[in-house]
Each structure stands twice: as structure tokens, then as C-alpha cells.
Amino acid sequence: AVPSTEDLNRYLDEAVAAAQEAGNLMLECFARNDAQASVEEKSSPADLVTKYDRQVEELVLKRLRTAAPDFRVLAEETANKEELTDAPTWIVDPIDGTTNFIHRQAECCVLIGLAVKKKAVLGVCFIPKLDELYTAVQGRGAYCNGRRVVSSGCKDLTTALVNLHLPSYSRGPKVVDRILGISRDLLAHPIRAMRCGGSAGVDMVHVARGRLDAYFEVGIYPWDVCAGQVIVEEAGGVCCDTLGGDFDLASRRVLVAASPELASQLAVHLRNHSYSSVEAEDYNGDVPEKA
Ligand code: 2AM
Ligand code: CA
Ligand code: CA
Ligand code: CA
């Protein structure tokens, strides 16, 4: 069943408390400057994890499981992940922007989302270094530290600041050519300016509060975008797939924009570069054999 308003309020309180507790742990790590010491590679040299990712995930899940024992959980650092179903599911990225975190950049955050029937209904994003806590519940607006936020409303690429992300799941030739192709195209368009981000969650809340006009990426997972989707949409922004279609949490692709007009302009360019599929290349560009 869909949670009542009362239940959603309680879940929001718990998610906020969990995100703040997690943020404090991240700040302690910044103060100690020891993230680098616990870096491990997962699937490739661009896919990293630290002991803090695991510690944060543990403390967040503990709280969420106590608050809602019946809910399913989908979290990045948990092995044997469950598939997203229609059941209420906490979707958690303990540290989004791990590489930024390791390099002591401010652009990393804790992401806690709640999905019901595969749709995001509640989102919390905490950026501890900026002391910015973003919250949103479907139909009730988006907030940063308790104050309403709205997207820039930017409708035209020529005045847009757009973030793209360097491919992290592969550096094979097809994937590299695609990012270079879209960059060349957007720079020639001309777009106002382009930046490279390192945290899907931070970029999404930046679109929500009007610091950034758009962000797109292929290769993301539900935990990268669930919380941010609610925050962006409640701030008047748009989440769709990179070709302009309806957003699907599990599709591995996202296009976020400050307005529907900007989203459709960007989608035209992304379509020209087939910006939709996760190519079957490994990190070095070899095509893995089918299992
Ligand atoms: P993470 O830091 O939680 O892993 C950056 O483009 C975005 O992609 C970040 O939100 C980052 O989240 C995610 N990311 C980093 N490495 C990745 C990988 N190897 N595969 C898929 N996503 C990755
Ligand atoms: Ca990761
Ligand atoms: Ca992530
Ligand atoms: Ca992560």
C-alpha cells in the first residue's frame, strides 16, 4: 500500500536523521584526512570504495530498517542486491561521489530515497561539506535546510550551464568517443558553459536549486538518482531519459534539466550521439565475452 502522509513524515524524519549521522562521519573523515588510506578498487580503477562508504551504509540502513522493518532495501555497497519491485523500497547511496570524497572535494553526498511501485516518492540528499540538507516528498515541494528551492527555469541551451560526467564504468573507445562527440557538439552549439561533475546526487540538487541548468549521464544506478529525482521534480525541474522519454529508475540513464524545454533541446543532441546504452566494453575497451 502507498504510505500515508503521516507515515511519509515519519520516514522523512528518519531519513534526515540517518543522513545527518552519516554526514557527521564523513566530516570526521575529512578532518582526519584518511579516506585515501582505505581505498579499494571494485570493478575498475575508476570504481572505488572506502571503509567510510561501508560504515555510512551500515548506519543508514540500521536506522531505516528500524523505522520501516517491512520495506525492501537497495543500497550500493550491499552484496547480492535485490531487484527493484513494486514494494516500498529504501534506495540508498551511502556516499555519492566517492572519488570526490577521496580527493577531499566538497561535491559528495549521502542519498536516501524511497520508491513505491518503482517510483521515487521521497528523497533526502545531504552534502556535509556545504552543510546543505535537501529534502522532498512527492507533491510537497523541495527544500534546502528547510527553505523552498526552485530550479532556474532556464529554457535555452545558449544560456545553460550543463554538467556532464566522464564515463566511469568504462573507458573503452566507443564510450570515450561518445563523450567527446557530445562535448564537441554542445560546445559548438554554443552552450554557455560546460563542467564535469563527479556526483549525480550533487548535480541533481544543484539543478533543483538553480545553480546548474542540466546534467546527463549513462551508466547510473537507481541509488544515484532516486533521491534526486523527487528533489528535482518538486523544484520544478525535469528528469527524463537521455532520449527524452519517461524516466525509469532502473534504466541506467538520466537527463536532468531546469525546464521541459531545456530537456527536449538537450535530448535532441543526445539522440544524435546515441546517448542511451551502456556499451558492452570493459574499462580498457575490450568487449567482454557473453556469459
Ligand atoms: P559513486 O561515487 O557513488 O560511485 C559520477 O559520474 C557518478 O557515477 C557518481 O554518482 C558515481 O557514484 C557513479 N559512479 C562512479 N563510478 C562508477 C562506476 N564504475 N559505474 C557506475 N557508476 C559509477
Ligand atoms: Ca561507487
Ligand atoms: Ca553513486
Ligand atoms: Ca556510492
TrEMBL record:
Catalysed conversion reaction: a myo-inositol phosphate + H2O = myo-inositol + phosphate
Highest taxon of the lineage: Eukaryota
Pathways involved: Polyol metabolism; myo-inositol biosynthesis; myo-inositol from D-glucose 6-phosphate: step 2/2
Keyword Nucleus assigned: no
Name of the gene encoding the protein in the UniProt record: IMPA1
Family assignment from sequence similarity: Belongs to the inositol monophosphatase superfamily.
Taxonomic placement: Eukaryota, Sar, Alveolata, Dinophyceae, Suessiales
Coiled coil: none
Name of the protein in its database record: Inositol-1-monophosphatase
Residues bound to Mg(2+): E76, D93, I95, D96, D224
EC number: 3.1.3.25
PROSITE patterns: IMP_1, IMP_2
Pfam families: Inositol_P
GO molecular function: inositol monophosphate 1-phosphatase activity; metal ion binding
Keyword Hydrolase in annotation: yes
SUPFAM superfamilies: Carbohydrate phosphatase
Cofactor list: Mg(2+)
A biological process from GO: phosphatidylinositol phosphate biosynthetic process
UniProtKB keywords: Hydrolase, Magnesium, Metal-binding
